[in-house]
Amino acid sequence: MSSIPPSLTSDAASYLRSDLAGWTVDTVQDTLGDRAMRAFGREQIVPARQSARAAGDDRVALLSRLFLLGDTLTRSQVDAALPSLTTEGAVNSGLLAAAGHGAHDEVRATCDLRPTSATTADGDLHWWVAHDQGEIVTGRAVNDDHVLGVGGASSTLASVTMRTPVARTLDLGTGCGIQALHASLHSDQVVATDISRRALAFARFNEALNRPEGARWDIREGSMLEPVAGEQFDLVVSNPPFVISPPGTPQFEYRDGGLEWDGVVGALTTGVGRHLNPGGVAQFLGNWLIRDNWTERWEEWLAASDVPLDAWVIQRDVLDPAEYAETWLRDAGVTRERDEARFTAAYEAYLTGFDAAGVEGVGFGAVLLRRPMQGAPTLRRLEEHEGAMQSPLGPHLIEVLAAHDWLAGASDAEVLDAAYTVGSDVTKETYGRPLQYEPEHILIRQGGGLGRSIKADTALAGLVGTCDGELTASQIAHALAALMDVPAADMLSGLVPAIRDLVQDGFLVRSTEGN
Fold first, then answer.
1. Measuring CA to CA, which of 10, 65, 85, 479 is 20 to 30 A from 403?
2. Start-to-end C-alpha separation, the chain
3. Residue 70 region, left (φ>0) first, then alpha (ψ -120 to 50), else beta?
4. What average pLDDT values come out for the chain (515 residues) when binned by 10 residues?
């Protein structure tokens, strides 16, 4: 049975913030050491506990033992680690459970509380986030109403979200509230929703503890878009329960959306448009079933949307049904070593359900939908990208959308009459035999963004190498035509599509001085 989530009064939150000051991702790393933290990343807790215990009464070590590593401390140790809140205040807040009132009585945390950090366009952010303890601490499978902390998916969503100032943001399926924390820094109002009352309790705790400098949160209970019926937003972010779970497989509030309609992803895609203001954006992560071509599923959803939408979907990974089952059984703590009969039954249920649905694989990726300001959508980009991505990626997405909007309305003549500069992260690579005068291959490579690379011919490489913001593309193309002894019209017509692609993906940036 799950414990009751902690809560904080205004005074208790202030005391706890004071006590946790200095307990950061970096100080934990410095105190516990690289070996312990690497093991902790592999979900092995023993080296970290050993290092923390060896550090004695160091406050970072005590706080890490108590909240991060699930260790027990004495009441006197907790009083030393939490001098403002004290053991008694932490127990009254539901953050700790104490065996008694004596100085040597044992005290333990009722939840996981840990420092977290994120790198953004505006610098590094530091918070403390509370959530349910995972199986690494408890040694058992998580409960059905488990509230997840800041994992890989939530960090990915935070990285790809575009951080422009907006009036209203909706964090749909807020969980412990990490996306709302980010959104509060660039939104006038944040509405955070979740179907789980337990998740909302943790979100309230994390808001109170971190005291966001921006918008206060309007926290609402309810499923999907029901709590915001009739309302519109400038930004919708969501790390929804996108795991596809056939009957007979483990089900958890925080992750599972069922098999039909690919869980919540299809419903969110088809329904979110009516909740976006013109120009508003929805960004979320998801899984989707692949029966043949994965893009067909997305074309169906986008065609069924209540409102026509611009769409950019990046498929980051594909797992076959067996890999998918293994991944999410392990995530749930359902392993062969712990309970072979339960593991086998659940594994078979995954495969049976997927086979019955004709599933060949399951895709995972990031979704960006936008309600056009006026007229019909102009962006439909469904692509696969399994390589590294810039983090944070949001600033790059902002630039790409701005470039797309300009290109959508620009004629070929306007594209040629503009001057461009090469992106600061762009490099040129040439390959060829040592005695060969001309290179066999020329690659224009992007160091940031999505890390794209394109194969260029001599003319395109010459254009990119000359884009310094002074000359227009037309002027450069005419010079290249003369140098290479080809008709100017042929050079211009050949370069225009390539320039559009380069500008669209951020290799070239339109120069304001050249227009």
1. 479
2. 66
3. left
4. 83 96 96 94 92 96 96 96 97 95 93 90 85 88 86 92 96 96 94 95 95 82 95 96 86 72 83 97 95 92 94 96 92 84 92 92 96 91 89 93 95 97 92 71 91 92 94 96 94 96 96 60
With b for 16 or more beta-carbon neighbours within 10 A and e for fewer, the 166-203 pattern comes to: bebbbbbbbbbbbbbbbbbbbbebbbbbbbbebbbbbb
Q: How many CB atoms lie within 10 A of CB 308?
A: 14
The answer to whether the predicted template modeling score (pTM) of the entire model surpasses 0.90 is yes
**Beta partners for residue 339, in sequence order:** none
Q: Is 405 helix (H, G, I), strand (E, B) or coil?
A: helix
- Dihedrals phi, psi of 114, to nearest 5 degrees: -145, 155
Tokens describing residue 26: 């970096």
Between the alpha carbon of residue 28 and those of residues 5, 23, 68, 71, 301, the distances in Å are 24, 7, 10, 15, 45
| Number of helices and strands in the chain (H, E) | 20, 19
Backbone angles phi, psi at 407, to 5 degrees: -65, -35
Alpha-carbon distances of 470 from 417, 418, 419, rounded to whole Å: 12, 10, 6
